[in-house]
User: Fold this.
Amino acid sequence: MKRTIILFMITMLVISCNSQTKEKKMEVKGSIKKNEDKLYAEYMPLMRDLLKNNNYKFLEHNVFKNKVIEYFGVDIDNAKFNDVYLESGLGYTALSNEGFIDTYQVDRGVIDGAGDAFADILKDGLNNDYNIDFINYNKVLFNDDLSAISKVNLDKDKIEDIVVYLNYEKNNLLNNSFIKNIKKVENYNESFKWHLLWYNNRTKQDFIRKKILQDIANKKPDFIFDLAYFLNNNSNKIKDKTDSALIDATLAFLIEVELQHYDDKDLSDNKGYSLLNNFYTQNPNMLERFKSQKFYGYPLIDSYTKKYLLMSEENEISYGKVIDPDGYTNLRKDKNSTSVIVEKIKSGERVEILNASENWWLIKTNSGNRGYVYKTKIKSE
Assistant:
């Protein structure tokens, strides 16, 4: 009888353990999300093998998730599907279950008469540039792999992808190469500039990209000067998407780093002061907003604002607006119509009038240039 009872208890224990094991398996299976793009079922093994064969280290899920948040500002655990579109950055896709990002920008599926080009690319291994980028970008972002970093560092466009669009600031080699090769602000599209100003991850306590912007200011201050003007002149475009307080805080930071760089210069040669003076002149409310924020704790903005106010009291500044039916007027180096054109000033732009005693008025533009404009082209305020 005892033996029967013992056997019964053992049997029930085994059944119970098996049941718990099945429940655990079901829980794990339930946590694996399906792909929204069904084609991934075919491509995923090829992509995974490509990474594995090139020494990519697959991370634990939470580690991978946190890195995706850091670079893209997207929590993949909140997504409904396994393939999570990463809108910030370059429009890549995170594969949540697998622990890597899809960087390919190619057509998927079988195309009549052409076969499946993407599958063919994946099978090409290191003979295809798409595959090389896929491997290197994943190894840089998620493994901090020095070999992959060295390879990316050979291509200026890829450096910009990694440093600017994907917010990777951990490596001095890439940062220095980016700054060394940086072009003029006007040569970049708006998306590039927004990504350079702010992190993709808006959950950061401070998502102004102060480190990279400070590094640029130290070596290429003219770039920061032009970037500040770009932000100031285009702030209305993004006010529906970006808090106006963030725009002010960003402008304040850009002005402060310019003031740091030119602090040993006279006011006439100080481009940081030129920014401060012109922005306050264009938008008097900005001074009050900065003041209400205690100048964001920036000592130089505080100091130079006092100089600005003192000079404004001592010298009554006269302003005017450009009026020209052509939509712009020419700022000339000297007082004649054949003189060198210093700048084209758009109609409606506010300018500082320095001397209006003759037919050709000496003015100062928002960009800090001084020159002459014929008096009929300006309406005094």
Remarks:
- The two ends are 110 Å apart (CA to CA).
